[in-house]
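User: Hi! Is it possible to get a structure for several chains at once, not just one? Here's what I have:
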Amino acid sequence: MPDTHALVSDFLNKLKKRKIEGSKATAKLTAELLRSVISQQRLPNTNQAGALIHAIKAIGDQLTAANPVEVAVGNIVRRVLHIIREEDVSLTTASIGGLSLQGLSDDDDDDDNPLVSAAAAAAAARTTLRPPSLQTLLEDIPPHSAAASAAAAALHHSSSSAGDSEDKTKSTDKNSRSRKLKHNVIEAVNELIQDIATCHELIAEQAVEHIHHNEVILTLGSSGTVIEFLCAAKEKKRSFRVFVAEGAPRYQGHTLAKELVARGLQTTVITDSAVFAMISRVNMVIVGAHAVMANGGVIAPVGLNMVALAAQRHAVPFVVLAGIHKLCPLYPHNPEVLLNELKSPSELLDFGEMSDCMDFGTGTGSPLLHVVNPAFDYVPPKLVSLFITDTGGHNPSYMYRLIADYYSADDLVLQQRPTS
Amino acid sequence: MKTGKVNNVQKKDNASVAATSEKRVVDHKDKDRKKDVPHPRMQFDDATRVEKAKKRAIVKQTEVRNRVELFRHLPQYEHGTKLPHLEYKFFHLNSNSVHPAVYKVGLRYLAGDISGGNARCIAMLQAFQESIMEYSAPPEKALNRDLTAKINSYVSFLIECRPLSISMGNAIKFVKTRIANLPVTLSESEAKANLLSEINNFINEKIILADKVIVRHAVTKVRDGDVLLTYGSSSAVEMIFLHAHELGKHFRVVIVDSRPKLEGRLLLRRLVGRGISCTYVHINATSYIMHEVTRVFLGASSVLANGTVYSRVGTACVAMVANACGVPVIVCCEAYKFHERVQLDSICCNELGDPDAISKVRGRDEVNHLKDIADNENLQLLNLTYDVTPSDYVSMIITDYGMIPPTSVPVIVREFRKEQIWSS
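Assistant: Yes, the chains can be modeled jointly so their relative placement is included. Here is the combined structure:
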């Protein structure tokens, strides 16, 4: 336990001080942290999944509070919670499946066990409302045994005394079940970390479908995904040019241009103000994102809303590359303010540069000069033509559907409810 | 008459008889001149024309290594190479070719000291005034023809320092029309006095008084509690803000600035010095700040006949974001800057600046990634100076003729041109 405390507070510190750059790095570190927390978590004999979920939620709450703008943290926490729930369901199904060989053979026939029938009916009603999740589809669980597993789960939760549920599960299964749950969850989290690390390759594979010969591509700022995407197209011998807008005041466009030139692509660096002027000669705009929200809106580096508007005006496709770990199940309310960070004004104006012309002796004494340096921009979904993720290309109006595949509805709010 | 033959303005280069360093002949016959003269708007991707122009040039310029393909029709020279040549030519040659006042103005353009349509135009006209004062016609030549030839030579020199702005082009046309219309009965001193007073009138009426009229119209559009946004540094907009502040209106200003010129800082300094509270942002943050803004005031280098606004690069972006947020865009432009040319995008006609200004970021060494690879053949740097804002983004244009919609600009151009031809 002390180990995890130290790890968690160390990570919290880094998040608060904004020491971690980029959502991919943050996601990876969060996943690794949660993996260590899970592996060191001691589980009670009953309701292991609940205990795990409770522990992860508590940590997740702290993490998201440390850096609310970095939604990747919350995404990963919710992914892990979803994994735990899914693994729990599949394990319970397996054990119920073992039971059903003896007792509950066919739910369509008369139920032998009257205790299960009422609960099964209620659970069946509930499962029809719950959409099929990726896990259940992959494991090909037939619906009636899904109902049975839901029934078993319902029984586990509803019966106050642990005695009944204890009778259902074989006592010898207990220890192996808890070990199995942890083991499965950690395996799945490892897969998640692997996915985060390889999302660039999967996205870059789709480059050839979108970039043809003699194309002109515009981008702003810098993104690892975009570099890999463009280079993959170059590998396949597509000849195209890239206009890179420099993305002041961080000037990440310069780093991108340097990288692209080193790899042999024809690059032209333009200022951000020239975007409208040049976009009439551009075939496609390809950018990376900081986060993708549930409505299909994009939290992107500052300046991309302008580019998206210009692209819409000139009917140029605006393509956003995002790994699935960037998909956030929350809806953006007032994103310019709530999901934005204001960085240091010294990047725009040096401290003391205007000090000689400001006279505080007169006037109301209120500050005459504000310098605003936001870090992010919100691009509404209607301006985005296409999302390219590691699972393929999607319309912005489809992004909400992917949420059901990766997140559970119970996890949207990470704050703990007061004990009911 | 010369009016019919007056060349059009924007790329008015080397139509002159500017002497090379060897020859001192300052006069050609009309027919010869016609053969030598390249097309008014010379396109720099035509190699033969470029060769001819280079032969006639006073100043040698080296072309930039990595030209942007899309802009091959525009000149792109390396900066910093012109100054030593210019100094050499001035001090070592017979400065018959260029008057010192004009030379001084040209150098100031080159260095970037004078910028902005009005400032450049006034500086050029004052330099012309000085040169006309000291001018004396050679005995056997007609005053107006010789003077026109001299003015042409000055203009081609100024073009070599920095391509003409549209305001300057219109002013030059005005001066040449006046010279051509001088009655032959006047003596030389009377003719010169006439010209000087005409140029003074032009500056006073079309620029200074026009600005006052624009400010008077525009302050009616500033209400208490407004948040006004402007881009870059425009002399007309600055005057509007200062006047409104003097009238006691309560408003605050948002200044949007962009690289590489960072002209907004100068405006910021002047406004804050006068006590107007300001917010300073970079152009990337325009969509962030636009939600607070009530009005947008923009300046223009020119307004073209199809209603598009030709102004500093980045104006189109600001106007577009304002349009998307439903904020009215008001353009303030004196009527003498209007032009009958039309333009659809920013590529056909533009000015390319110093590419090194893009790769070097002043004051921030940690982001200078490009300075080592600027010579790489795969890398091009594009520094546009102007861009074109479509007319549907502009709500209203305030000129000295009043407040007009962008579609009325060709009407004003027509009336303005008539006035120029028929007056005096």
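The first strand of chain B starts at residue 226 and ends at 231. Residues 1-40 of chain B have pLDDT under 50 and may be disordered.

User: Great, thank you!
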